[in-house]
Design goal:
globular, alpha/beta, 5 strands, 153 residues, 43% helix
């Protein structure tokens, strides 16, 4: 399995980057992190989201399952999330791409293409913490599917 995390914005050195790196190092799957940085900001929200969407979708590998992190998405338990990843592996997916939009969220073109719209609850999370939460949940999903004792019900 190959995991791609594709996100708008650059993560600076600090505790969030350290935590994200720690979870990714534990993960036996191949992984990559692509940061989308748009230098010239659009005048309005819709145009900004569209520009971000174009760059995000271009970075998604062909044939990858696409997971869009979105506040209106499904809130899954860790076991259900692990089950979804296991289902994708069983049906022949070898790559999962997770996309995280900018401060205004994802454009509808990304959401329409997503195989799963995922929410981390109804709270608003800072984008850099979302990356950490995502990496931890990906590692937890691997541990559940592998029978590793990291996850406890």
């Amino acid at each position: 399995m190959h995991i791609s995390i594709i996100a708008v914005g650059r993560m600076q050195r600090g505790p969030e980057q350290s935590l994200m790196s720690d979870y990714l190092k534990r993960l036996p799957w191949k992984h990559s992190v692509t940061e989308i940085d748009i230098k010239k900001q659009a005048a309005n929200t819709e145009e900004r989201k569209l520009r971000e969407a174009e760059r995000l979708l271009t970075a998604v590998p062909d044939g990858a399952a696409l997971v869009a992190l979105d506040e209106t998405g499904k809130s899954l338990t860790s076991r259900a999330f692990a089950g979804r990843i296991d289902d994708w592996q069983s049906t022949g997916y070898s790559h999962i791409a997770f996309v995280i939009g900018g401060a205004d969220g994802l454009h509808s073109t990304v959401l329409q293409k997503a195989d799963l719209k995922l929410a981390f609850g109804t709270l608003t999370w800072p984008h850099m913490l979302v990356r950490v939460l995502l990496c931890e949940q990906i590692y937890r999903a691997w541990s559940i599917n592998a029978g590793h004792p990291y996850h406890r019900d």
